[in-house]
Amino acid sequence: MGINGQLSRLDLNDELILLAKDFSLKFCISTDSNSIFDLAFIRYGLGQVRRGWLKKQDFVNTYPYSQLKEVFKKLKL
Q: What SS3 state is found at 48?
């Protein structure tokens, strides 16, 4: 599941994040940046993450490459 830091794209609230975690879903956090200034939106995505009680291991974009590669194999990407 994607957690987007753009103010207009904060789709997942804390309750939905907790529900998704209960189903063992993994997440990817992003800023959906179109410019370098948009990278600052990561703070809003991190706010959602904190309210959803997520940890580092819940995010595929924190995985080492070898582990991420296995995730992609499962997705057939």
A: helix
